[in-house]
Amino acid sequence: MGNAIDLDYKNCVKTIKSMVASAQYEALRKVNKELIELYWNIGKAISVKQEELGWGKSVVEKLARDLQAELPGVKGFSSQNLWYMRQFYIEYQGNLKLQPLVGEISWTKNVLKACRFASSDFCPFCPDAVPNALRD
């Protein structure tokens, strides 16, 4: 190939590579947004059942076991994660300005932010309930 053709070919490869990377990034963002919405809805369902039926720790643990049995190979439904989802919903439900934004960041970052900025002395997301003052 001539120099002009080589350069044109290299530019084409670079352009296609950039298109693939951009599409992958957008796909990940959309998947993340759907997962955050799913976790929000699961947290809402658990919160509502707690209010209406008095669901407690044993019911959520049973729910976790049943979901894991019904959805083999799907991860993320441990009882701890279900509690995170519930708390995620409770923390953000009243803030209409934040609700659309929480879907734009990953689940892990949402949990970490809630821990860091929890209004109470203990982070409801943290299994060890470490006081906020000791985290920094």
Describe the structure.
- It is a single chain.
- The protein has 5 helices and no strands.
- Helix 1 crosses helix 3 (79-92) and helix 2 (57-70) crosses helix 3 (79-92).
- The model is unreliable at 124-136 (pLDDT under 50).
- The radius of gyration is 21 Å and the shape is elongated.
- The chain is mainly α and 136 residues long.
- The protein has helices at 3-53, 57-70, 79-92, 99-102, 107-116.
Features:
136 residues; 0% strand; mainly alpha; 68% helix; disordered C terminus
What's the structural blueprint in terms of helices and strands?
Layout: H1 3-53, H2 57-70, H3 79-92, H4 99-102, H5 107-116
How many structural domains in the coordinates?
Answer: 1
Task: Output the number of helix runs.
Answer: 5
Cα gyration radius (Å): 21 Å
Q: What characteristic shape results from the CA principal axes?
A: elongated
Structure classification: mainly alpha
Poorly predicted segments: 124-136
Distance between the first and last residues' Cα: 59 Å
Assembly of the depicted chains: single chain
Helix content: 55-70%
For the secondary structure, the number of strands is 0
What's the mean pLDDT score? Answer: 80
User: What's the story with the biggest beta sheet?
Assistant: none
Strand content: under 5%
List SSEs in N-to-C order: HHHHH
Short overview:
The chain contains five helices and no strands.
